[in-house]
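FORM 12-B: Structure-to-Sequence Request
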């Protein structure tokens, strides 16, 4: 194995959204999971479970840390996705119930069962594996760790016609597929070697304000969201669906702590009586498409994301 690096990468490798559907034979297709990205690091001491921003996830998912600590190998860095599964599908809304918990007693009382799907190996026994081909890293990963709940190995398929594979994935209710170059190395940050093939449109957006509720609605009416472009927060529209009553109350309380007088958006937002907020919260939003004016069509709130910095949120654009 080439090189040595006990620290692991500063950030995980990220996939690029793509409309491409035809590939050469040297591609692997994995299930796209809707959860929280997590790197697990063990260098002879305690296991550290880290978000993509470096936040410690251990207190929220102690069963994952315990399963990794029980592994016979004492030195590794692995990459994967923490999910909650309902009806055979990864469910981000369900995972939200665990994402906010840090107190041990609250975590123990939570009915939400989580899984940690591992799909890459970055270091093993003090040796950096990131320069190895993906197929080799996955083979090493499968042999190095013992996969028992909540740890799961992410299987893959090989094929040229992504349309057929994606159609099958969507029919099963999956989020989509991740197409990965089988001979590719692990590279920090976003890379065209990993491509996101989605069944439906969704992405992270920054919350910059909210409207007052109307009628029998409680909490707030809609979130005002946007994304960054050239260092400025561009307005993307308002999101008025996808909330239950506890979420409406909880989000209103958090946003009131972030209220400010001036709108954070670079664009003019025509929402009389709107409340503006410091752009510190990131939400996952589903929608049907972007309009020509750069607004979301039929947006729906899925949940908050604690694993991404607001300034990293940009509009995802498909590559050919």
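FORM 12-B RESPONSE
SEQUENCE OUT:
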């Amino acid at each position: 194995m080439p090189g040595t690096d006990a620290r692991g990468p500063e950030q995980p490798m990220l996939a690029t959204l793509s409309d491409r559907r035809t590939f050469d034979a040297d591609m692997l297709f994995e299930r796209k999971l809707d959860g929280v990205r997590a790197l697990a690091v063990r260098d002879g001491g305690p296991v550290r479970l880290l978000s993509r921003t470096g936040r410690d996830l251990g207190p929220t998912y102690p069963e994952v840390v315990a399963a990794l600590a029980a592994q016979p190998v004492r030195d590794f860095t692995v990459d994967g996705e923490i999910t909650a599964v309902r009806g055979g599908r990864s469910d981000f809304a369900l995972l939200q119930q665990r994402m906010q918990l840090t107190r041990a007693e609250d975590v123990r009382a939570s009915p939400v069962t989580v899984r940690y799907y591992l799909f890459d190996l970055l270091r093993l026994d003090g040796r950096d594996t990131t320069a190895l081909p993906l197929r080799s890293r996955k083979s090493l990963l499968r042999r190095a760790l013992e996969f028992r709940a909540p740890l799961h190995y992410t299987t893959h398929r090989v094929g040229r016609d992504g349309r057929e594979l994606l159609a099958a994935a969507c029919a099963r209710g999956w989020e989509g597929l991740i197409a990965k170059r089988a001979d590719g190395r692990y590279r920090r940050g976003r890379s065209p070697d990993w491509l996101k093939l989605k069944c439906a449109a969704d992405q992270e957006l920054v919350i910059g304000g909210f409207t007052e509720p109307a009628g029998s609605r409680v909490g707030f009416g809609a979130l005002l969201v946007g994304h960054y472009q050239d260092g400025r927060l561009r307005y993307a529209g308002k999101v008025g669906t996808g909330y239950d009553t506890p979420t409406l109350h909880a989000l209103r309380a958090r946003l009131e702590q972030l209220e400010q007088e001036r709108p954070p958006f670079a664009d003019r937002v025509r929402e009389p009586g709107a409340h503006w907020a410091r752009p510190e919260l990131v939400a996952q939003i589903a929608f049907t498409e972007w309009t020509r004016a750069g607004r979301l069509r039929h947006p729906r709130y899925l949940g908050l994301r604690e694993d991404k910095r607001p300034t990293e949120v940009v509009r995802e654009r498909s590559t050919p």
